[in-house]
Each structure stands twice: as C-alpha cells, then as structure tokens.
Amino acid sequence: MAVERTLSIIKPDATKRNLTGKINAKFEDAGLRIVAQKRIQLTPAQAGVFYEVHKERPFYGELCDFMASGPVVVQVLEGEGAIAKNREVMGATNPADAAPGTVRAEFAESVGENSVHGSDAADTAAQEIAYFFSGLELVG
Ligand code: CMP
Fold first, then answer.
1. Cα distance between residue 35 and residue 4, in whole Å
2. Active site residue 54
3. What atom of ligand 1 comes closest to residue 112's alpha carbon?
4. Which of 11, 40, 66, 88 to pair with 94, CA 20 to 30 A apart?
5. Overall average pLDDT of the 41-59 stretch
6. In the 8-state DSSP scheme, what is residue 102?
C-alpha cells in the first residue's frame, strides 16, 4: 500500500477538553506519523472556505461558527493508506454510529461537535493540506 498524507483537524470541542494528546496517541498507536501540526484560531470565514463543499447544507452556518468557537489543531498525518486508516481511527461522523475504541466513540459530543475531521480522498487531502500548510512546514 502506498504511503499517503492526510489532513486532520482536532476540533474546538476536543481542544477545550484538553484531549489533543489522547487523540494524537490514537493516531500514533495506529501507525500514523504526525509530520506537521499547529494550533490555530480560525475565523468563521476561514472555516467557511475550508468547508465550502457543504455550503448548501442546513448545518453549514452552525459548522463554521463551531469551528471558529475555539482553537483547533491542524495536522498532517502520514502512513501507509493514511487517508482510510485515519477515517477508521476517527470512526463514523455521528458518534452514535462510531465503532467502539474510535476517537468519535470515545470523545465526540454530537454529530456537529465530533472532535476530529479527516480528509475523505486523495484529492481533497492534497487541497486541505495546502489550505493550512506550506511545503516547508511538512517534515516527514
Ligand atoms: P467533518 O468530517 O468535519 O465534515 C463535515 C462536518 O459537518 C462533519 O464532520 C460534522 O461535524 C458536520 N455535520 C455533518 N452532519 C451534521 C449535522 N446534521 N449537523 C451538524 N453538523 C453536521
């Protein structure tokens, strides 16, 4: 399987509860390497650009406001099959459907406040990584 990179975000509900280290441990235990990471505060407009694909959805405004409600940790995870592996570690979007042991089963509060985001495919991973990181910030 090819080595891939994927964009991960630890969301405000998780940073607020001091869960960054526990979530990172799950990524690392699964064999994902954190090759870039920074803690930032988004504006609603910056979150809106990131989630533009969802702009027609009824929850778009709420999602943008939530993502700007506190610090987020944006990170690039690297590993064999990293995009699918990260989605496995995160669990289903709605924590009620997430498998036991996944980040969302253990930590997410609701479908909106679901602790983590992960890219869903190779093309979106490349776009999402470029939104937050320059090439110089990626240290493999
Ligand atoms: P994420 O993987 O970051 O991608 C889009 C986000 O939209 C998703 O996680 C959820 O946090 C959010 N989302 C999806 N469905 C709903 C919903 N019904 N209500 C509020 N937020 C939602």
1. 11
2. no
3. 21
4. 40
5. 98
6. S
